[in-house]
From TrEMBL:
Gene Ontology molecular function: any one: aminopeptidase activity
Recorded family membership: Belongs to the peptidase M17 family.
Domain Cytosol aminopeptidase: 164-465
Lineage of source species: Bacteria, Pseudomonadati, Bacteroidota, Cytophagia, Cytophagales
Nucleus found in the keyword field: no
InterPro entries: Leucine_aapep/pepB, Macro_dom-like, Peptidase_M17_C
UniProt-recorded name of the protein: Leucyl aminopeptidase
Length: 473
């Protein structure tokens, strides 16, 4: 999609899109369509409504934003333009923003417009329509229009990349595929990159990571990306759970395995965030780690009751092989803290069904030992519709992970506090880092939406992390 700012005229062959705030309907009609009267019974600007008309031989689509739209609402409203009204689009598209609309809503609208071109039909015989060269004129009085259009384009590109990484099937997104993706990104954006194969991972002491990948024919890859800016304000470390497919291991899953290609939603989020930070040239240092494995079953698969090592030097009793995500994250967190010493440390993972039991599909579970970091993530998420809510890290929960035979066990096996005990397990591998946050995104990274007939990637975390970073600058 190619943006053109403030075109002097609208061609008759193009679709003109005008957003309306419900409480400014008459004002916007007078500004954009003078002389046109629309009965309120047909269109009033209410949330999630639309109306089409032909004005001077041009097709016009009116979009209702409601009285006080938020970022996510505006994004979804404009995503419908290409997703649900594609039949109205012939040549150019024009977005005609009324005066006074906030810059946040303009950015959200332009992001959503591009997200509407995303399709799940990767392998269909009839390929989805390609909108890469589609021209979009943007008319706005905002003095920051150029910057808004640029940032919106990069946000949308990153989010669609996160969509794609989650939505592609597990025979296309494997640990080696993710490693190749990271290499290509590093080459394109001049990032540092390291990929550890099993031999190198063994020499680095990444024993828990290697144990999970033992049962798969697909070689595990420990991925490290380094973005460096000469005027960096702080150093952020990200770790994303990269289980490209999860059978549950020998504690095999008994339902829902069809959706387990999504168990690398955390990896998709941090990789796409790295792309976005580098594209926007944000003044930070960013180190991203993705331990990428497939949790499969064969003669070499790790066993329930095994005791395995870890990068942090702690021995781990494996109670459940389906609690594998926390094992690879443990090594990722420990390696990042020990070797890079970031100012802030954040991990994202589709970790527990318990977080879904608590928050459903509306919010991520947030754990942190730093009140400022926790509040910053909450605040950033509220602004762009990627909500999280804190749960406690009280030390009493750590006792649930005590093991008789090893330093710690990977699962407490009880029907309560699953998300909390998982977080306490991870905290044991952070080397007491003073500013760490864990986002359990199991309920929000792969969801049902109006834009697909099946569950699909949401890119949860990409815009959240961007807004959090921007607020620290």
């Amino acid at each position: 999609m190619q943006f053109k700012l403030n075109p002097k005229t609208f061609t008759e062959s193009g679709l003109r899109v005008i957003p309306f705030l419900e409480n400014e309907l008459e004002q916007t009609l007078e500004e954009k369509l003078p002389g046109v009267v629309i009965p309120s019974a047909l269109f009033s600007g209410k949330k999630d409504t639309h109306f089409t008309l032909n004005q001077e031989n041009q097709l016009v689509l009116l979009l209702g934003l409601g009285k006080t739209p938020d970022y996510k609402q505006a994004e979804n409203t404009f995503r419908r333009v290409f997703s649900k009204h594609a039949s109205l689009i012939t040549k150019e598209t024009y977005v005609d923003f009324p005066n006074g609309i906030s810059e946040d809503l303009i950015e959200a609208a332009l992001v959503g417009l591009q997200l509407g071109t995303y399709s799940l039909g990767f392998f269909k015989k009839e390929e989805p329509k390609d909108f890469k060269k589609h021209k979009v004129g943007i008319r706005t009085s905002s003095t920051s229009a150029k910057d808004l259009a640029f940032s919106a384009q990069k946000i949308a590109e990153a989010k669609m990349e996160a969509f794609r990484l989650v939505d592609l099937p597990p025979n296309k997104i494997t640990p080696p595929n993710l490693a190749d993706w990271a290499k290509n990104l590093a080459k394109r954006l001049n990032l540092g990159v390291k990929i550890f194969d099993p031999k190198r991972a063994k020499s680095e002491g990444l024993e828990a990571f290697l144990a999970v990948g033992r049962g798969s024919a697909k070689e595990p890859k420990f991925i490290i990306l380094e973005y460096r800016h000469p005027k960096a304000k702080f150093h952020l470390g990200l770790v994303g759970k990269g289980v490209t497919f999860d059978t549950g291991g020998l504690n095999i899953k008994t339902q829902g395995m069809h959706h387990m290609k999504s168990d690398m939603g955390g990896a998709a989020a941090v990789l796409a965030t790295t792309q976005l930070v580098a594209e926007l040239r944000l003044p930070i240092q960013l180190t991203t780690i993705v331990p990428a494995v497939e949790n499969a079953i064969d003669k070499d698969a790790y066993l329930p009751s095994e005791v395995i090592g870890s990068h942090a030097g702690l021995s781990i009793e494996v109670v459940d092989t389906d609690a594998e995500g926390r094992l690879i994250l443990a090594d990722g967190l420990s390696y990042l803290v020990k070797n890079y010493k970031p100012d802030h440390l954040i991990d994202l993972a589709t970790l527990t069904g318990s977080s879904i039991g608590t928050f459903g599909y509306e919010s991520a579970a947030l754990f942190s030992n730093d009140g400022g970091l926790s509040h910053g993530l909450q605040e950033a998420g509220e602004e762009i519709g990627e909500k999280s809510w804190p749960l406690p890290l009280w030390e009493v929960y750590a006792r649930e992970m005590d093991s008789e035979i090893a330093d710690i066990r990977n699962y407490h096996g009880k029907p309560f506090a699953g998300a909390i005990t998982a977080a306490k397990f991870l905290q044991a591998f952070t080397h007491e880092h003073p500013s760490w946050a864990h986002l359990d995104i199991a309920g929000v990274s792969f969801t049902d939406t109006e834009f697909a007939k099946t569950k699909t990637g949401s890119a949860f975390g990409v815009n959240l992390l961007l807004k959090f970073i921007q607020k620290q600058l």
